[in-house]
Amino acid sequence: MRVSYNWLKEYIDLDLSPEEVAEKLTTLGLEVDYIEDWKKKYKDLLIGQIQEIKKHPRADNLTLVNVGLGRKDLQVVCGAANVQKGQKVVLAPAGTTLPGGQEVKKAEIRGEISQGMICSADELNLQEEQAEGVLVLDKDAVPGEKFAPYFNLDDHIFVLDLTPNYGYALNLLGVARELAAVFEQEINYPPITGEQESGRAEDLISVEVEELESCSRYTARIVEGVKVEESPWWLKVRLLAAGLRPVNNIADITNYVMLEMGQPLHAFDYDCIKDKKIIVRNAKEGEKLLTLDGRERELKEHNLVIADTEKPLALGGVMGGLESEVTLKTYNILLEAACFNPASIRKTAKEFLLHSPSSHRFERGIDIENITRASRRAAQLMGEIAGGEVIGGIVDIYPQLKEPLLIKVRPQRINEVLGTDISRMEIKSILEKLHFKVKDSRRKEGAFRVQVPSFRNDVKIEADLIEEVARVFGYEEIPATLPRVDMELGQKKPGQDIEEKIRNVMHLAGYHQTFNMPLISPGENLQQNCSTPLKITNPLSSDNSFLRQEILPGLLRSLAFNARRQEREAALYEVGDVFPGRGINQKSALAAVVMGAVSDGVPWLVEAPEFFDLKGILEIITDELGLELSLNNSSHEFLHPGRQAEVVINGEKVGCIGELHPRLEEKFRFPSRVGVLEIDLMPLFREASLAPNYRGVPRYPAISRDIALIVKEEVSAGGVFTLIEENGGPFLEDLILFDIYRGKQIPGDCKSLAFRLVFRNPERTLTDKEIEDIMDQIITRTGEELEAEIRQ
Amino acid sequence: MERKLEALQEEALEKIASARDLAELEQLQVEFLGKNGKVTGVLRGMGRLDPEERPKVGKKANQVKEIIEKELEARLQILKADQEKQRLQEEAIDITLPGKPLQGGRIHPMQLIIEQLEDMFLRMGFSIEEGPDVETDYYNFEALNIPENHPARDMQDTFYVEGGLLLRTHTSPVQVRTMEKQTPPIRMITSGKCYRVDELDATHSPVFHQLEGLVIDRGITFSHLKGVLIAVTREIFGAGREVRFRPSYFPFTEPSAEVDVSCFKCQGQGCSLCSRTGWLEILGAGMVNPRVLEMSGIDAERFTGFAFGMGLDRMAMYKYEIEDIRHLWDNDLRFLKQF
């Protein structure tokens, strides 16, 4: 909603700067987004009178115009065809700026000096389409004076961002009423005459409302003999200030009154109405209507139409029809002023994507009691501006009068809710200033009975009136205090501590936390065995039309983003929610990706640094959380077939770890191998323990032995590991694989695994003999079961 | 004999004084005091002496031995000190060389904001609740006093999901879910992802984050709402910040308020960050609408409450002066590494 300050001042006497008014409006809840300074925009323009026109000596289609500015004249080179001696025009002198921001420079055009520019309406931002010639002003314009005040352009426009509850402030009088309440001013209502007078309107038109639910009041008035033409400039400027495009005087007047009083109006060409009968009815399924925007609309049964006996003429309250549109040929007007049901309007407007200033107001509710006044005001203006004859009387279908709403309001409750100490007197006065009628109770502490004015559709319950009191009293005046409460521990959400622990491990391991949108395209799903993801029925694009079932696709997008920016090394992770499938179903997951991991030391870390980087993280996480980790063989298609595993924690499959399949690495254009990990966190949240498992400080020394076993290539390190553990006896405290060797000194199809075994008995010092026995047992068993040989 | 001892003493002291290192000193120790040393030799030859002279010579010999030992020790200390001094000098390093790099991962700025806020509310005794991103129309709209065809639905353009569900447009459904399962007093916050049909650009995103809070008890007032939110705002943006409350509209609160904080970049003078208004809009809040309380089974006469919600993406952008919302989603390492 755009509010011209000059226009506003017609209804209320304000002697405040625009900034002060804006401040007040904002504190009342009518948020001023910004102020458009038209005064500044139009400040440089002057009124000039054409004194003399000479042909340009060296250009056929240019003239040299002498523009009189009272005390001095300026020569302007002009290309417009419509300049005539004696005309009053708008001049932008050289060195000034046009409203559109374009600078006017002193110029020499084919040898002739031009000291300014005579402006056309479009150059003044007063019209969208290019004008035929310069703007010619009326004779009363005074040369030399500033142009802005003459056209009422020395204005400031408040651009309001109104929330849906401020339907009643979507008009100038509504805004004025709000200001009047806080500045204790009277409103100067526009003069409306002859509202009650009767006449032959009823002979000229009949109205039948079939759908009272969707249209609780419908009025029709007739204006005969209008001359449809462009509106006078004062009217056009008002519409422009409000952001509406002038059309013709009749359409402009309906918009003007809507802006002034909040009542949307529609003018039909009376002579296009068959049988002179208006029927307000639901559309017939499949019925067609050509709307004002030139589009044919196929209607459904729930669309409310304004029809004659033959066909629909308009989409009620949303948009008129082209066939009954007021055109330059129109002579007689049927003026509609009605009240349509907000929900019905909203549905139709949304369906046809026809959000108009009119539907906007109906959706928020209009003042049903104000309809005949608004209609009369518009008819009267049509008489004055378009030369029509307003036919007395009005056809008014309003069978169920709207009863004023009465609300019980307890002054004490107001103070209880606000935490204030506002007196009964003050509460009463605030409500009355806002046009609520307040009936006091006979009892001292009794409740008020408050009658809601018909324009306040937003006020329905006591709480609404508490807000009214609060905003006029001033939010800033309400003291700020802290509540006194019964002390209670704040609780984290389930799993939150564990999630924090996991994130800490990730950060220590050098992984950066990421946030990825949970919206993906169907092709991005990596795991084959997932169920169908949840589909968004109205996505912005197919790229994000599904909810993710795994974090990895988004994480890989992020990794690719960095790879494209020449990053060679990256380690990223996310702890976030995934959506496994149908319905409301959501769980936490951890995913990580790593590219270009650097590892030195033992050979297997060098061979597959990314895989073992991630495996190391899993080991730390499970160790920190007191969980049991194992990896099983797996066959995910998106992973390298020889470098992947199922992650099993405490016996439950929770996810996968591996290297991305080289095909995918190529597809994403990753510069090197990429390790990926994704696990479901719900089992971890369930099973994890954050308490450290302290076992006491050992009192006896440990004894360590190294052993290198030569085994066939196909024997896994894990197999040897398990066998040693099984045969290591109760005092094997630690078992570490510290090297793998292949090469000279051992057979070609074999490898040597070097282990360090650490033994300790908590009760006493172990003897060499005891250790030797165990080592012998290990050598025997590994020899028997794995054909392992000791490497000397 | 005694003269011989004196000569030995003189010789020893001379040599000790000119010893240049510990090895030389050790040799001198052997030369004079060792098993076959010169002084020891004298003592050993005492057997051949006149018994009357023995004590005298013995005493002298011990004296000489002691003097030499003392000198050796003194010289040892000096040489050790010299050696240490030299070693320390040699070991001096260039302290301007760079330190050992730590390759730790960084926390995403969104997480930083969430953690700061959660921490603050936990300290005030709020509990953290959670709710699903995929919601029903009831929890997202109906139960919050936003019936179908209400213009307020325009404020939140909704993504719909198959099966008659939707993606929550705000975190407020968690308020309803909490009120349904808990009885007052309630003090909770919740945070998470929200979704609205908005093309991704510098200032809009179809997915964003909100943090939402709810307090319900006997005697909770608008004045408390102000007190708590001023405390929260100053905790995040600094103690000197001005906080402004102005009327606004949310169907689920009445009265409703929008909360602005004075722009910390320009100190309220007006700059590009605050669109020259001097204020940054950070919070929506209000007293819980009695209808909402009643729909969730709470007696609106006995209990009152306030609720508030804030956009965390915007909060992070304000706090860290992040110029483009897309940075929060790109996961550009050059961005992530700055937090």
* Tally of DSSP β-strands of chain A: 39
Which CATH class of the largest domain in chain B is shown? Alpha Beta
Name the quaternary structure. Answer: heterodimer
Number of helices of chain B: 12
Q: Mind telling me which CATH architecture of the largest domain in chain A this is?
A: 3-Layer(bba) Sandwich
Helix and strand composition category of chain B: alpha+beta
The CATH superfamily of the largest domain in chain B is known as Bira Bifunctional Protein, Domain 2
Query: Quick one: biggest sheet of chain B?
Result: 7 strands, mixed
Instruction: Briefly note the CATH topology name of the largest domain in chain B.
Output: BirA Bifunctional Protein, domain 2
**Structural class of the secondary structure composition of chain A?**
alpha+beta
Beta-strand segment tally of chain B: 10
Total of domains of chain B: 2
Helix coverage percent of residues of chain B? 40-55%
Shape of chain B: rod-shaped
The general outline of chain A is: elongated
Strand and helix order of chain B? HHHHHEEHEEHEEHEEEHEHHH
CATH-assigned fold name of the largest domain in chain A:
Phenylalanyl-tRNA Synthetase, Chain B, domain 3
N-to-C terminal Cα separation of chain B, in Å?
Answer: 86 Å
Roughly what percent helix of chain A?
Answer: 25-40%
CATH-defined architecture of the largest domain in chain B: 2-Layer Sandwich
Map the helices and strands:
The complex is a heterodimer of chains A (792) and B (339).
Chain A: E1 2-4, H1 5-8, H2 18-28, E2 32-37, H3 38-41, E3 46-55, E4 63-68, E5 73-78, E6 88-93, E7 107-109, E8 112-114, E9 116-118, E10 136-137, H4 147-150, E11 156-160, H5 172-183, H6 201-204, E12 206-209, E13 215-224, H7 233-242, H8 249-261, E14 265-269, E15 277-282, E16 288-290, E17 296-298, E18 304-307, E19 312-315, E20 319-320, E21 333-340, H9 342-351, H10 357-364, H11 371-386, E22 389-390, E23 395-397, E24 406-409, H12 411-418, H13 424-433, E25 437-439, E26 448-451, H14 462-473, H15 496-508, E27 512-513, E28 519-520, E29 546-547, H16 552-564, E30 570-578, E31 587-595, H17 603-607, H18 609-624, E32 629-632, E33 639-649, E34 652-660, H19 662-667, E35 674-680, H20 682-687, E36 703-712, H21 717-727, E37 732-741, E38 750-759, H22 768-786, E39 789-790
Parallel strand pairs in A: 12-15, 27-30
Antiparallel strand pairs in A: 1-11, 2-11, 3-4, 3-6, 4-5, 6-9, 6-10, 7-8, 13-21, 13-22, 13-23, 14-21, 15-18, 16-17, 18-19, 19-20, 24-26, 25-26, 28-29, 30-31, 31-35, 32-33, 33-34, 34-35, 36-38, 36-39, 37-38
Chain B: H1 2-18, H2 22-33, H3 38-44, H4 54-90, H5 109-123, E1 127-129, E2 134-135, H6 137-140, E3 160-161, E4 165-167, H7 173-181, E5 186-195, E6 207-217, H8 222-237, E7 243-250, E8 253-262, E9 279-288, H9 290-295, E10 304-311, H10 312-320, H11 327-330, H12 333-336
Parallel strand pairs in B: 1-5
Antiparallel strand pairs in B: 2-4, 3-4, 5-6, 6-10, 7-8, 8-9, 9-10
Helix pairs in contact in B: 1-4, 2-4, 5-10
